[in-house]
Amino acid sequence: MIFGIVYLSVTARHRQRMAMIDKGMDPRTLDDHNRTLKWGLLLGGVGVGLLLGHVLVLFGFVQDPENPLPYFIMTFIGGGSGLVAHHLIVRKRT
User: Fold this and answer.
1) CA-CA distance, 10 to 4, in Å (whole number)?
2) Model pTM?
């Protein structure tokens, strides 16, 4: 199933680029150079959020250590802060 999804996405992207070339358009205009920055900051923020959630549980800031809520909360806060950082960096560049 994963192979099928990857195959369909790759072939769809190839067809789209070939159609752009047929119409005389430049397919490089589709490339988003900030995409890797966005994903890097998002995943880095999620990692930091998981780490901070673990620190909250480890140092006893949470009553029930089996409760997964601190991990979820800190993951969303970390990921959101990564996306905000991406927005600020892109806005500063342009």
Assistant:
1) 10
2) 0.67
